[in-house]
Specification:
Blueprint lengths: L8 H23 L4 H49 L4 H8 L8 H12 L4 H11 L4 H16 L4 H56 L3 E4 L2 E4 L10 H28 L5 H19 L5 E7 L3 E2 L4 E10 L2 E2 L4 E6 L2 E6 L5 E7 L5 E11 L2 E11 L1
Parallel strand pairs: 2-11, 4-11
Antiparallel strand pairs: 1-2, 3-5, 5-6, 5-9, 7-8, 7-10, 10-11
Length: 381
């Protein structure tokens, strides 16, 4: 008769993650608007659901094993002291099981209970070795102890020797981790610099290269220094692209940081979570919020005093047109008004002031609690 398949805890977590990710995809297709920003965030959420639960579970297991490894030398020394005091191995195990070895307590109590039920020390120790096979330090140390027990003779000196060797090995590992801490700090700095480059590209370089416009954003106001912005890829495209590159960079840097410090890819999950959360927070503050922008220019540059001329422009809220909003046009302390059309464009006929020379007019619009303004120039003759 075939043995029934019994999923492990890790396998159950993977199955649950796959089911939940599938439900997220179905809900996205059926109920949500499929724009690039939301798609990018959903993609990260699905990847996170598939990776983080099982990774954090494995990380918690590894953290528990590290605590056990720290207590393992103390357990061996206490066991050796009890054996030297004349106690049998069963009584020595029962005695040390009353001590506090933190996460290692459960395994020691299991060993004590099995031996009290009549299971041999050799068989009980083999079960512990199998359950802790992920720990090379403990499994190897207990294997040496088992071989010494099978060989007969004095076992307490061997336990003390294994304990001392384990302590030396742990100290070497701690020294290596301390030395690698500086390298990990450099990796975090690289992540921060990469995020800064993304912010600068989005705020400065992208407006220059895509539209020939240099927009300086301070708070909620945007000043356009060159005129009507050209057409190009939308802001949502760049936001989605930069967001996905930031996620990839966080994942790569996190894995490298974990492997550098602990020689373990799984330990990199913690660094990925830290980098990703910090990066998404800063990205949401500096890049994700929508920006209100307005462009304007005069159809005629050189104008006679008191002559009527037309100012045209366009208002956008990221990639969306700002429709049916009032536009203020201020020229020589006189305010004129216009209204944006459905495509965000406006056209206002205003009168030139009764003064000669170059003049600068201000065009301002309010939308969604934000204010944007730009300037245009004319020459009155």
């Amino acid at each position: 008769m075939a043995k029934a398949f019994k999923p492990s805890t890790t396998q159950w977590i993977i199955i649950a993650s796959i089911i939940f990710s599938t439900l997220l995809i179905i809900a996205y297709i059926l109920f949500f608007e499929q724009d690039i920003i939301f798609t990018a965030y959903l993609s990260v959420a699905i990847i996170g659901v598939l990776i983080f639960p099982v990774s954090f579970y494995e990380y918690s297991i590894n953290s528990k094993i590290r605590v056990m490894e720290e207590q393992f030398p103390m357990f061996l020394k206490d066991l050796a002291d009890n054996v030297n005091a004349g106690l049998s191995m069963t009584d020595a195990i029962r005695t040390v099981s009353k001590n506090d070895y933190k996460a290692f307590n459960s395994e020691i109590k299991k060993l004590s209970n099995q031996m009290s039920w009549g299971v041999s020390f050799e068989k009980s120790l083999m079960d512990i070795i199998k359950s802790l096979k992920k720990s090379m330090i403990i499994s190897r140390g207990l294997s040496v102890l088992l071989q010494a027990f099978r060989s007969g003779g004095e076992i307490s000196p061997i336990m003390n020797s294994v304990a001392e060797s384990t302590i030396i090995l742990q100290n070497v590992q701690k020294d290596q981790e301390s030395q690698m801490l500086q390298q990990v700090s450099i990796i975090y700095m690289i992540q921060l610099v990469f995020l800064g480059i993304i912010i600068i590209m989005y705020k400065v370089l992208i407006p220059i290269t895509t539209g020939g416009a240099f927009s300086l954003a301070i708070g909620s106001s945007v000043t356009d220094l060159s005129g009507i912005q050209g057409q190009g890829l939308g802001n949502d495209y760049y936001k989605g692209f930069f967001f996905l590159t930031l996620v990839i960079q966080s994942a790569c840097n996190g894995l490298v940081a974990g492997y550098t410090k602990n020689s373990s890819i799984v330990s990199g999950i913690r660094h990925i979570a830290i980098m990703l959360l910090a990066s998404i927070l800063l990205f949401s503050i500096f890049v994700l919020p929508k920006e209100l922008s307005i462009t304007a220019s005069s159809e005629t540059y050189s104008i006679i005093r008191n002559q009527e001329f037309t100012v045209i422009g366009r208002a956008k809220y990221d990639d969306a047109n700002v429709a049916n909003e009032i536009v203020e046009i201020i020229l020589a302390d006189t305010i004129f008004y216009a209204t944006t059309s459905s495509d965000g464009e406006f056209r206002a006929t205003i009168t030139a002031p009764d003064q000669r020379g170059g003049l600068e007019g201000i065009v301002r619009i309010n939308h969604d609690g934000k204010t944007a303004q730009t300037a245009f120039t004319i020459n009155v003759r």
